[in-house]
DNA sequence: GATTTATGAATGAAGG
DNA sequence: CCTTCATTCATAAATC
């Protein structure tokens, strides 16, 4: 026999012969008892099985999603990670992609640079407000933008001096043994990622099935 | 070819033998094939990610535990992916670290957010210890990390309302853009938005339910 | 139009 | 607690 275990094949998982007894851990995991010891009640098993089954479904969805994304570039224009706008206007090709991140206008940049050069290393809050207010005349901008700009400007300015030396290849590339074309083309391994989770990949999907699945599961939980 | 799917991070993968389970999600192409190219708000995306991460974590935990009990059961396709103890820095010797600063795992984040939302403003020392202890089960973490996280979380949360927060300027454009900064306001039930994605289904396992479920599983494990 | 670079933004940690 | 710094991520812009 065997203990209850998850069958990852979510279609035919009813193969196991696990008994329905409630022998809660007679022995803890330590002993590697590879026999009839259950670590979970059947109830738990069932729940978890469903959860995982659902997860599998989600994974599949993600895979589908990914395929679609990678095959259709235009879709990528939707800015998966930062969608702030309408769903319409997609269709053919171009969407009035809203600027999802601020980009200083030449004028703004010039002014910012100028202020930066003044040596005013620390733009106070009030200062930021003023600057922002002024720059607003030259385009959309927020205080945060200004704040970030100075932060970044300074940090990078500083790094330039130290990090990049004349003959100092400080590059943090230790994986130099790579095919020139192989690069780091964003390993779209959506389903496996850094933190033993799905990571931060931007993936969107939609499925009422999953929704309801989860929902029912949730209820069952009580 | 097989679809991508979760790769179980594990340190003791060497003992995997046969018993490959590559067939997980292969089939099942059925009714889920269609993916609706969605439109979700940032908040929804963020939540979705978390949700999925939670599933991933659950699965991982399950596998972990299960393997402790039955050493015969190893899930194929395992590859290390844990970022925390990274083994590189071999050849060249450049660039040793890959991660110098703590990054909360999805599970940790979820828990932290949950605690944060409890309104318990300032976690006391003891509270921090407890939290840290709990979170340790989900990845490397220290009390300082927890402390800092709460500090930052609060500061950030507060800054949204006042000064240097985003949209403080009187942007005359884009009025239909909701502030993307409002991210982690409340992990609870954000996905249930009738207009989008998962519909009105309550898809959130966010809270303690799964958490405690996992936790108890862990305890059994030990 | 696929890659690479520059840079806006997010966030963990440190200082005060 | 509040401010600042450092590092990292994502992506608009630039480049080939």
TrEMBL record, chains A, B:
Keywords (alphabetical) are: DNA-binding, Homeobox, Nucleus
> Region Disordered: what ranges?
157-186
Q: Which residues bind DNA?
A: 97-161
Q: One GO cellular component from the entry?
A: nucleus
DNA-binding as a keyword of this entry, yes or no, is yes
A GO MF term: DNA-binding transcription factor activity
| Keyword ATP-binding assigned | no
Show where the Homeobox domain sits: 95-160
Classify the main location. Answer: nucleus
> According to its UniProt record, where is this protein located?
Nucleus
Record protein name field = Homeobox domain-containing protein
Task: Give the originating organism.
Answer: Coptis chinensis
The record lists the lineage as: Eukaryota, Viridiplantae, Streptophyta, Embryophyta, Tracheophyta
Where the shown chain sits in the full protein? Answer: 33 to 254 of 310
């Amino acid at each position: 026999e065997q203990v209850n275990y998850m069958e990852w094949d979510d279609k035919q998982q009813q193969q196991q012969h696990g008994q329905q007894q409630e022998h809660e851990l007679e022995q803890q995991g330590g002993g590697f008892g590879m026999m009839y010891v259950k670590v979970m009640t059947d109830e738990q098993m069932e729940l978890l099985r469903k959860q995982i089954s659902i997860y599998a479904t989600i994974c599949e969805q993600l895979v589908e999603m990914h395929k679609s994304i990678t095959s259709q570039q235009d879709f990528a224009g939707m800015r998966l990670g930062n969608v702030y706008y309408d769903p319409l206007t997609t269709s053919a090709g171009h969407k009035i992609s809203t600027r999802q991140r601020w980009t200083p206008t030449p004028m703004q940049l010039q002014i910012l640079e100028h202020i930066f050069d003044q040596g005013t290393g620390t733009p106070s809050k009030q200062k930021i407000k003023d600057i922002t207010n002024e720059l607003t005349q030259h385009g959309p901008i927020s205080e945060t933008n200004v704040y970030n700009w100075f932060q970044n400007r300074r940090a990078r300015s500083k790094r330039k001096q130290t990090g990049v030396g004349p003959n100092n290849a400080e590059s943090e590339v230790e994986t130099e043994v790579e095919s020139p074309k192989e690069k780091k083309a964003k390993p779209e391994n959506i389903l496996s990622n850094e933190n033993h989770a799905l990571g931060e990949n931007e993936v969107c999907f939609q499925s009422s099935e999953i929704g309801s699945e989860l929902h029912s599961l949730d209820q069952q939980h009580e």
